[in-house]
């Protein structure tokens, strides 16, 4: 097989018959495949070392490589954002209510439990409160009217302990470190 047919094929100017003959030649033996690859490497090297008349061919190759790299980067970014979104949806946000000095505030939790916060107190709970947990985090002083739910205990976390289960209707928390609970009625 003559070299000029290889180069016509690489440039895209080979006739249908020349293309067919070349492909048959390449498939005929491993040595022919090796020669084809070798000729392609020589052709590519010539493109990059040739004078400016082949600038267009070099530009096309560079654009294809840049496009391939951009596609890979876009794929990696897409996968990263997808995974981040998946894990972010499993990390609920913490909702916090704070009461300023010399004021009180009442908070109704998603399960209809009510909490009255005293001055300079804060209550935090997860945005998925009530769907798997009823944990609250208290700093300061609060009075609770807790809705009954035997499947999900109401847990108050304070700075001094890991949480106390409140199984009563009402409780008063003094200074967030001593929980006093009394059953209503």
End-to-end separation in angstroms reads 102 Å
In terms of structural class, how would the helical and strand content be classed? alpha+beta
Number of strands: 10
Largest sheet: 5 strands, mixed
Radius of gyration using CA atoms only:
37 Å
Share of helix, binned: 40-55%
CATH class of the largest domain: Mainly Beta
Widest β-sheet, arrangement of strands: 1-4-5-7-8
Mean pLDDT over all positions: 81
Percentage of residues in strands = 25-35%
Low-pLDDT stretches: 181-185
H-E string: HHHHEEEEEEEEEE
Envelope shape: rod-shaped
Q: How many structural domains in the coordinates? A: 2
CATH topology type of the largest domain: Jelly Rolls
Give me the number of helical elements.
4
CATH architectural group of the largest domain: Sandwich
Any overview of this molecule?
- By secondary structure, this protein is an alpha+beta fold.
- It has 2 domains: 3-88, no CATH class; 94-182, Jelly Rolls (Sandwich).
- 41% of the residues lie in helices and 26% in strands.
- The protein has helices spanning 3-11, 16-28, 30-49, 55-88, and strands spanning 94-98, 105-108, 114-117, 122-126, 134-139, 142-145, 154-158, 161-166, 170-174, 178-182.
- The strands form 2 sheets. Strands 1-4-5-7-8 form a 5-stranded mixed sheet, with no helix packed on it. A 5-stranded antiparallel sheet has the order 2-3-6-9-10, with no helix packed on it.
- Helix 1 (3-11) crosses helix 3 (30-49).
């Amino acid at each position: 097989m003559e070299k000029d047919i290889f180069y016509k094929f690489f440039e895209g100017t080979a006739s249908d018959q020349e293309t067919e003959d070349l492909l048959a030649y390449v498939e005929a033996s491993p040595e022919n495949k090796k020669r084809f690859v070798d000729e392609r490497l020589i052709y590519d090297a010539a493109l990059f070392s040739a004078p400016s008349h082949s600038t267009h061919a070099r530009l096309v190759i560079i654009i294809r490589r840049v496009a391939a790299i951009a596609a890979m980067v876009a794929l990696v970014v897409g996968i990263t954002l997808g995974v981040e979104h998946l894990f972010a949806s499993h990390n609920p946000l913490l909702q916090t209510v704070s009461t300023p000095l010399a004021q009180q505030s009442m908070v109704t939790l998603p399960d209809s439990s009510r909490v009255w916060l005293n001055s300079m107190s804060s209550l935090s709970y997860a945005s998925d409160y009530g769907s798997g947990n009823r944990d609250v985090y208290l700093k300061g002083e609060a009075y609770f009217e807790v809705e009954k739910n035997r499947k999900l205990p109401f847990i108050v976390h304070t700075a001094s302990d890991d949480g106390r289960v409140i199984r009563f209707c009402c409780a008063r928390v003094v200074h967030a470190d001593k929980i006093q609970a009394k059953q209503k009625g």
